[in-house]
Amino acid sequence: xxxxxxxxxxxxxxxxxxxxxxLMKSNYLTEQKKLEPLRRFQFPCELEKLSHSPPPSVxxxxxxxxxxxxxxxxxxxxxxxxxxxxxxxxSSERTLVxxxxxxxAALVSRFNPSVLHQPLxxxxxxxxxxSKAIRSTLDQAKEVVKFMKENQMLDFQNDWKLITVFFSAExxxxxxxxxxxxxxFLDSMERLKRVLDFLYQEVPKAFVNxxxxxELRFFSLSSSNQNKIRMPCNCADEDSKLDDVILRWSYQNDxxxxxxxGRYEWRDDFTIVLQPFFQxxxxxxxxxxxxxxxxxxxxxxxxxxxxxxxxGVGLWNNMLEPVGKKKxxxxxxxxQARCPSQEYPYLFTYRNSNYSSSPLTSQAEGQSQERxxxxxxxxxxxxxxNTVPVSVHNLRPADIKVIGALGxxxxxxxxxxxxxxxxxxxxxxxxxxxxxxxxxxxISTVTTLANILREFNPSLRGYSIGTxxxxxxxxxxxxxxxxxxxxxxxxxxxxxxxxxxxxTGINFQEDWKLITLFIxxxxxxxxxxxxxxxxxxxxxxxxxxxxxxxxxxxxRAFVNxxTVLHIVTLRDLYQAKNISCPRLIMRNLCPCLxxxxxxxxxVEILESFNRRYQEGTHQLVESGRYDTKEDFTVVVQxxxxxxxxxxxxxxxxxxxxxxxxxxxxxxxxxxxxxxGLWNNMLEPVGNKTDAHFLEMVLTLRCPSPVEPFLxxxxNSNYxxxxxxxxxxxxxxxxxxxxxxxxEPDQNHGSQLLCEDRAPSSSSPTSVHALKPADVRVIAALGxxxxxxxxxxxxxxxxxxxxxxxxxxxxxxxxxxxxKNVTTxxNILREFNxxxxxxxxxxxxxxxxxxxxxxxxxxxxxxKLPDQAKALVRLMKSDPRIDxxxxxxxxxxxIxxxxxxxxxxxxNYYSAVNFTSHIQExxxxxxAEVPRALVNLxxxxxLLPLRKIFLDNQVQCPTHLxxxxxxxxxxxxxxxxxxxxxxxxxxxYQNSTRKLIESGRYDTHxxxxxVLQPFFQxxxxxxxxxxxxxxxxxxxxxxxxxxxxxxxxxxxxxxxxxxxxxxxxDFFDPKANITLSxxxxxxxxxxTYRNSNYxxxxxxxxxxxxxxWGSDLSCPEQTPSESVPTSVHKLRPTDIKVIAALGxxxxxxxxxKATSSTNMLxxxxxxxxxxxxxxxxEAHTTxxNILKKFNPELFGFxxxxxxxxxxxxxxxxxxxxxxxxxxxxxLVELMRGSSKINFKEDWKLITLFVxxxxxxHYCLDRETYSxxxxxxxxxxxxxxxxxxxxRAFVNxxxVMEISGLRQIERETSGCAVPGASVCPCxxxxxxxxxxxxxxxxxNKDFQIKSMLMASSSRYAQREDFTVVVxxxxxxxxxxxxxDGKPDLSFFSVDxxxxxxxxxxEMAIALWNNMLEPVGQxxxxxxxxxxxxxxxxxxxxNPFLFTSRNSGLQNTAPVAGTDDPSVPYWAVILAAVAGxxxxxxxIGILMSRRLKKHQHExxxxxxxxxxxx
Length: 1507
Description:
Layout: E1 2-3, H1 5-15, H2 22-31, E2 42-43, E3 66-73, H3 85-89, H4 92-109, E4 116-117, E5 124-126, E6 132-134, H5 137-150, E7 160-167, H6 186-202, E8 206-212, H7 214-223, H8 241-260, E9 270-275, E10 288-291, E11 294-297, H9 305-319, H10 363-366, E12 400-407, H11 409-412, H12 449-454, H13 489-502, E13 512-518, H14 521-526, H15 536-553, E14 557-562, H16 570-575, H17 583-589, H18 591-594, H19 601-622, E15 632-637, H20 667-682, E16 775-782, H21 784-787, H22 824-828, H23 864-877, E17 887-893, H24 896-900, H25 911-928, E18 932-937, H26 946-950, H27 961-965, H28 976-997, E19 1007-1012, E20 1017-1018, H29 1042-1057, E21 1066-1067, E22 1135-1142, H30 1144-1147, H31 1182-1186, H32 1219-1231, E23 1242-1248, H33 1251-1255, H34 1266-1283, E24 1287-1292, H35 1300-1306, H36 1314-1317, H37 1319-1322, H38 1329-1350, E25 1360-1365, H39 1395-1409, H40 1463-1487, H41 1489-1498
Parallel strand pairs: 3-4, 3-7, 7-8, 8-9, 12-13, 13-14, 14-15, 16-17, 17-18, 18-19, 20-21, 22-23, 23-24, 24-25
Antiparallel strand pairs: 1-2, 5-6, 10-11
Helix pairs in contact: 1-4, 4-7, 4-9, 5-6, 8-17, 13-15, 15-19, 23-25, 25-28, 32-34, 34-38, 38-40
């Protein structure tokens, strides 16, 4: 497979003789550099021979036949003299279009290197008055034709031309009410026709691409300078999403009809093909990029150059797809260029695609929808109450005088009366047909709730008739607004109340009113854009605000609250292939529902949100909040909760129930929905239908003589299961007298009396100068105490202990505000309202509302690293968080479950293992999360909790003691188990204190871990009689209630402000805790440094470690049943041969060196990737690990002699340019070996090189450039790919070398001066430009090598793969107990590793091999633990590759673990940073040319120990 860089070369060669026209010449000179981004694309096509005789027909046109290319841009001007038009047109839109055409030209030049390319014409002309005038599209077309005719290198009559016309379907004011619907897009269509007609008449031999660039225009306006761009027209606020989508679809539909009409098909040498471009995008507007922590602004020319090239590849691919099978694609979607096939080598047209324009139509669709949707009322008793009822629970249908409704387009009636296929008419709001409030005609012809009620009371008022918007007279009390979401319902409620009060026909105080509220579809359709904004809690809160308005202001009202429908069922209609639906409209209206695969995470979350919207609606009403007045109630009507798509007799989705857009309801559905609502209203609460089948024949129910009333909770004798007290923030009306059941619980809020709540004047760079208001992100890890189990559970309701009340959790909950709920986030939000990361509501760690609360109930310390990884992944992927610049507080509390299980396995739950797990988690955060203060809360002393379970007078579930904490609660006083736990608690606390006081996490200025010790000693709260006060505990008497969580939050906050060394070490839940404030002299969160605290010396360990072996106790591993043929099904037991390429780190130089005299000895038998000395228990190496799976492994090296090197081809001092030689030697050595079956045996090869290249980069930048580094690696991998059958190649990323400076700086006695070992990294001064340059180049090596190896270049063979292992991407220097670098990991030169260091490399590599691509650990964890090796699992028994990680044809991303994230987007972001750094390097080079010349001359004199 060949890179597109070949294209780039051919393209430049072709340009040498093209630019004959002066304008074209100037354009070409500036465009040559813009083709640089094309180098990253893969282009697998073989070069075809050029046609000697051009084809006579456009329908047999090949890419190689194209001789000239041009583009025309239809970019409409905006009718507003205040706007600078050129600012609009020559902005990001032009960048995108231009880049896509440059890419397309490069692709075509792959087949015809001499193709002529004319740049896109988007310039403005000067009018006589000096103002700028937009060049019309027709003028552009004429100029393009003129250039082609004048170009002497083009035979205008005989050469084939490819012309791309970019058109826009929108006029920005198209949705203004002053424009008549059918004429909104007429002008645009006529202008486009004139252009196409001109091309058809004037240009022979032409293939014309017609491309919709509408999305580009909207991006152009949204991302332009706001000072220059004002709202283009006064009607912009009246525009709606529905209008935009349907008008655009109508325009495109008419355009398709134009092309299918054959208007441009009379000539055999001309065609026009509509090419899908991209749609439904969110184009990013990046103002700058980060380079080594610094922000560098983008120039206009740099904006998204690399990403934009992808658009051209998409256009190319569609040219090679038959009409009818062309696909829209998404901006920032990494695409691979397609190739013409031998069977279909032509560009596809309507004719050679055999395309039929007749859509498939279901039987139901073909039938006319013009029919009566009336019904009959079988009820004989239709009389009102004898006197007007005073209670809503005695309300008969005939008593209702007024009807109203709130909601969205489903209540507004959009498209309800539209005829089949009249999509444009969906914009019409048929309010008179609306199911809940429409009043057109009567019940015999139109079934609506209003028309049903008019049969009981002909004087009913409020219903809507005819068509019109919510502010029209026809709408009356139908105040639903198309496109509205739950957050808009309160304003609708306000409008409804005002209309009722102001209408003279309504007696507002005396008339009974029926109001139906139905909302939520649009929230669900947009939830994926902002899961927090559209969270179930916010949805419910919005409904609550609207209902509160009605409850407070509307007397005598019965409110139907219809739960949101089961929206996921709409996917069935969208996916039905035989149904003709405008799927573009459907996707635009509900992208979060229809843009994802069936089993995707997004659909799962949508299902969860849908269910929780419904549950939240029930819980709100069942709280009894709206049953405090006798004349008002809210009743949940659930008939749509489990609705399904209606089916035809053939079992297919029946689209006749939907408007022409296949999204809104047709009158047929409005009728059925009205019947379902009416029947629900007459069903008792607790026994209502929740599964309404639209296709079923529904008979209207009648009030019975026994139960003649509309059903409420009271007249249904129903008791709400979840009734709680009303929210104290919303006081009941003054007329209402609270009953004891309504008295609010104790307030768990707090008062913060701090006057100074301002942030630092500029964002601090040191964690030791961090103010509370500087904190932008909050997160937490831990177990059920942080997950919030049982916080909100009622007394004795132990079942509710499974509910995770994350919004109330002490360290991370964000429910309500500090006035009502005391948590650390709510305290911090008093300082910074923009705080993010906190959890809300209830649910598991994977729920969106958990956000950065990644605590898992039941978690032990062993699981803490997994939580840390999940947290890092969320922080990096969430658009609300800038992981590099936002300051973060992360609170960790773990250990309770370890102690509760301690007596069952003291070794497993030992303090050593406990601290090791915490260290691993903290190492992850230290390596991956900048700008963070971590609260490590000491493990809780659980022993005082025994008092509660041993006191018979306390009503606690003692039978759960063994289940809750078997090693603490049920054990006998004085027993050995209890003594063990007592010792373990102190050991846990002491070991974590030693870990933090080692200074391990104080090596970065922007990161620290602070131990918060208030759980060292806890006091059980007691009543006056001496019994435990269980109001501080959840129903299980083990977890904590909200009362205790509030106290915990106050204690944590106060402890955070206390200096290290003076922090509170006890917790008294009953204490009167007042929230402290930062002071003028101590405004910062307390750290060891700003507390002037000196860590106490750590006691040395008593027993020296005997060796650096490991213990591996995996379940018995069997090889595959037969030798696998696919590398993606390769088990460790299948590997027969092992080999390695590299430098002195692979020859294991220094592994056992004791002085400079034996420093250069290569201890190959101890090499991390290839050494085989001894056994794993004594020496940790990759072969020794693999020998546990296959004792017959061959190829590893032993001893120190070259004769026993096996397949270890590494050479000390080797650089990347030596790898191809090593690869060739390895192939020949394997091929000639009689010990292996060259073709059949599976081989594992590890390649690790680059340190020497980096260390000498500054001496010869060209030789050791990132490009050359990758080129040499690629050459070596190419040899292995071409020559070796059955091979799995580990490519280990070059280490981050800058950390070695710490060893040079903080230690003495190294055998070799550091400057001679690695001059380019160890010689520059700290913070010097030279050092910054080297750090950038280091990252450049990592990123470019990763991109190369992770591409599809090596993915075409089933028996070969290359997997990148990133454990050295972020290198952490191991520290000793004195806080200085631990030299036990490093050899006598302080640069190479000892056996201990090599053992850690082997562990890291093995574990990386068992981690999915995209989720591999990207830092080293150099800590001794014999149990660190992972095992293959039954679920994942194979070595991970891109394909079996679920990422086939997708490059893994540096710095993200989330499979849902587009991996290539993060790669490109990283590359952009590297390219920016390259610009800086260029400047540095020009300034120091003489200096580098001198360095180059002295390079030969450097006598060093190379890697």
